[in-house]
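Title: Prediction job returns without error message
Component: structure pipeline
Severity: low
Priority: P3
Assignee: unassigned

Description:
Job completed but the reporter wants confirmation the result is attached to the right record. Sequence as submitted:
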Amino acid sequence: MKRFAEKNLCENCPSRGQSVFHNYPKEQLAEVDRDKSCFLMKRGEIVFNEGNMPHGIYCIKKGKIKIYKTGNEGKDQIIRFAKEGDVIGYRALLSGEKYSSSASCLEETEVCFIPKTALLSMFSGHSCLAMNLMKVACHELGEASKIITNLAQKSTRERLAEIILVLKENFGLDKDGAIDVNLTREELANMVGTATESVIRLISDFKDEGLIELQGKKIIPKNISALIKTGKIVEA
């Protein structure tokens, strides 16, 4: 269950510089503060469910969230991740459709909920917010296209190598050099699009080959060039 968290001012939010509100007029941020609700959620808690109608958007102040779809057999396919400064749930809201995916917390997460009426009011006279959301939507569409292509054209080994690099890029490394996100092997398998047993076996192979090291469940990338080669990634 969502627990109410302290409602801090948007202007002082440490994640605002990475959010769609980074260039929103400061004098108008008071409107956001007035209308938003803030929640503290535990790992595994659901932010929204596939098939439900949206009533607003969520802005992540702190923490990490996975966005996923559930297949006919109950197996999840992770589409993407969201972190500090990201907004989620906006596409369904703006299109007037039900959520096409679900979102749940990967760790203790603080999110701010902005209701639909407040969001639409923000668009009036402040095109920067609408433009920022459009940029985010276009980026996510491009990333979704990559996922579809990789699932169709790359082997499981190649996909896992690329996913490790994507996670490193998205979440960075902690003080020990491990990718700074807590994922179960099942969640990693959901990203790769294969069975958990296959991912466990490949992770062991990657470790034996010196591509990675392990710190509990966390992965430490050791040979980036070899991971790029294994993932058949074309560098820009």
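Comment from assignee: result matches the submitted record. The chain has a mean pLDDT of 87.
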